User: What shape does this take?
Amino acid sequence: MKLATLRDGTRDGRLLVVRKDGEAGAPHDRWTTLQAALDDWTAAEPALRELSEGIEAGKVETSPIDPYRLAAPLPRAYEWVDGSAFLNHVILVRKARKAEPPKTLETDPLIYQGGSGDLLGPRDAIELYDPAWGLDYESEIGVILGDVPIGTTALDAAKHVRLLVLLNDCTLRNLIPDELAKGFGFFQSKPATAFAPFAVTPDEVGDAWRGGRLHLNVRSTYNGQVYGDCDAGEMHFSFFDLIAHVSKTRRFTAGTILGSGTVSNADRARGISCLAERRMIETIDHGKPSTPFMVVGDRIEIEVRDAGGASVFGAIDQRVVAAGGAS
Amino acid sequence: MKLATLRDGTRDGRLLVVRKDGEAGAPHDRWTTLQAALDDWTAAEPALRELSEGIEAGKVETSPIDPYRLAAPLPRAYEWVDGSAFLNHVILVRKARKAEPPKTLETDPLIYQGGSGDLLGPRDAIELYDPAWGLDYESEIGVILGDVPIGTTALDAAKHVRLLVLLNDCTLRNLIPDELAKGFGFFQSKPATAFAPFAVTPDEVGDAWRGGRLHLNVRSTYNGQVYGDCDAGEMHFSFFDLIAHVSKTRRFTAGTILGSGTVSNADRARGISCLAERRMIETIDHGKPSTPFMVVGDRIEIEVRDAGGASVFGAIDQRVVAAGGAS
Assistant: This one.
């Protein structure tokens, strides 16, 4: 099933069960927020699925979905943990900032703890306070977890995956070097993350979800031009591997969001899912980057289509505006 | 006023308004969780203060407070952001792992994003999975914030501080070097953080809260011996400075917890608030550390007393147990 969160003036918004074509949806009487449903998934899931079936059968009154009125599926989450599981991205981005990839690149996942208290909806503007900060998008797949015990193994991780999501992990590239030099990881260099309209249960994509990876393409369209159409199945570490990694020393509460890192393929013809990679390729080929970072007025669209061409998560479609809201 | 959260089988527990002596408390009819109160503080604060006054006047029925039944004031929080604002700690701990302090030590605060989905109560055991991980405690002061807009200045930060807390930011020292070498900051090296029983409004400590610092001593008692009695007022960066730093590129939602970092004083006679500092001092004085990291059976107590000798936050009193719960 497909779920979304309608902005209704509350902090958590109103949970909607969405028709599979993404065009209409309905609220549930009892399960009014996604967090509440995740908190009690065993009870919530069958109730929400029953509503979903009623919607598909045309037996439930629905309202049209307006993506401009949607929040992130979880407008605030208890944790947002982001991996960097596409090795091609790690290698290129480190090269771009003249840093070596870690020696344990292929055996020890890169993970950072992101800010989770303020997550953006699919049409929310990206407010740019200073173009010198080097604004970039990063197209990623994520999973929303149920309760994960400490010491969960990759073999045992599948059952903790509740929902799949698509996200734009905006990054301020030019703030990264000074921040990482301090040794404590990203902070100011990671502004609020934005999410596509729909969170979907894994069965919604059939066997495209297998082995803890989503085997579909993530298409990133920048100012109307397709910059990348990258295979998310090329994750070196699967989401199950990432779950095992993060739960080594602590547990996670239901509603934790876990990201794949920027989707990136070794095959250059696939294009890129963030401008930093394109700039690095330009540097390798021509000695210097020619693609600038994002500026006011830019537009980034991110979408995933299934084998039948249907949009799985709906589209992220964000514009960059000057801070304060003027575009 | 003093607030606490009683474990009642729900994920967020039940908010209690606590008598100033910390011995008894009462729930509020409408404001049933601390997060709900923080979400709507303008309405909640006067209602909770009215109950607090009723409790002090003996006009409200109360129940005894049993710290073993308390959760963290926020058992799950939307963000847990930890500074490292005591420069003496930064210098000693970096020296211990043979790393240089950052060049911007005195001008650019160190901050990391912590895990916030699973926060421990004041008597919760510290489960130790592997003694080789090098378990340490870290005694810290924290603040719980209201909504903080992007670009908040230090001068404007005071009004966003809702509550003060005391916490134990447990750390697995021996996991840090490999983790920081990857460049993305702490993750596995930071297990769940524990909190003292009471969150208090700043007025509760009078002028000991001034300039964004708590001018009281944090006493850390390890296995019955006072290891540190450190002045939390020696923070180089105030909480207001830290708020300005973290809000440079994003906003924060009500209930965000912001920590001071390990309380640490240049005056050695004050002692230490984590074992890593003691081990470094031993190394400086004797060539090698003699204090081991924590082992099963160890006990750590952390407490802050006001000028009159009263316990401000109640005591953190945790024992280290073998993973699985056997002590």
Remarks:
- Chain B touches chain A through 54 residues (CB under 8 Å).
- The first strand of chain B starts at residue 2 and ends at 6.
- The two ends of chain B are 36 Å apart (CA to CA).
